[in-house]
Design brief:
binds adenosine-5'-diphosphate, HMP/HMP-P_kinase_dom, kinase, UDP-N-acetylmuramoyl-L-alanine:D-glutamate ligase, two-stranded antiparallel ribbon, about 25% strand, 9-stranded mixed sheet, binds pyridoxal-5'-phosphate, 8 helices, alpha/beta, PM/HMP-P_kinase-1, globular
Amino acid sequence: MVKKILTIAGSDSLSGGGLQTDLATFTTMGMAGFAVISSIVLIKDNKVRIDPVPIDIFQAQLDSVEQVERFSAIKVGLLQSPEQIEVVANFLKDFIGPVVIDPVLSFKEGKTELNHDVLKAYREKLLPLATVVTPNLKEGMLLLNDEKREAPKSRNGVLVMASDLSHLLRCSVYLKAGKGIQEGQYTDVLIDESNHGVVLHYDALDDAFNHGSGCVLAASMACFLADNMDLKEASRAAADFTRHAIVHSYSLKRHAEDGNAFPNWRVQTWN
Ligand SMILES: Nc1ncnc2c1ncn2[C@@H]1O[C@H](COP(=O)(O)OP(=O)(O)O)[C@@H](O)[C@H]1O
Ligand SMILES: Cc1ncc(COP(=O)(O)O)c(C=O)c1O
């Protein structure tokens, strides 16, 4: 039977992340994708504009997908207010199955304002309901909320940070530590459900063409978990899937400097 998988995410009409990227990932993984829209994101001239969907319409979408029997996994992306976070927490309370939450608190594409009530709601209401949370280093530091703490610069430092996050949030953590940890490499760290740490290093690929790579990672991880892999296997498989999406990135304009990760890299392209 075809597996059904839900994303609760923002819409990015440039397909550089958000539900467009999530649905494309689900399709490539051979699963049927469903989407609840939290916000409309507009990116132009290095500015990010986010218009949240009114809360009653957001809730109505969640009520509507309750008709689906039943999702094999749920991925959660951009949420813009404590109210949205609370509504999602309520929705997830009775869900039995893997939940991957990507706490989108910062954008590569431009600055956005941070609402501290959103951070508190994430920490207290939503993230403890996740199977795994996938912050980048900046998002992880924000969630830890410790002004005296410095961002880690070593392999050990990232392991400690991921472990502290996992204790604070009471869930597994896949921390995207980025390129500052080991020369020429990207480092990701997983703290799994038995508090066991795994460090993953990957050769750094061209940075210019990877809008949406965080979404591809979390969405593919949700699919691998839906396929009954354990979290360690699913993490490795998702990291590998995402590297392929980055290698196959495409630009939006013929001579553009940047572009999107390509989640459909497994599918035959028409040339
Ligand atoms: N230039 C790159 N080379 C290799 N891996 C990368 C590169 N950029 C991102 N990744 C990987 O892609 C995944 C998503 O990371 P990232 O794009 O940093 O997330 P986010 O968009 O949430 O900040 C991670 O596994 C990360 O290690
Ligand atoms: C709706 C939405 N969610 C999430 C993201 C984050 O994307 P990334 O995977 O590059 O971190 C973006 C980026 O544009 C977005 O528009």
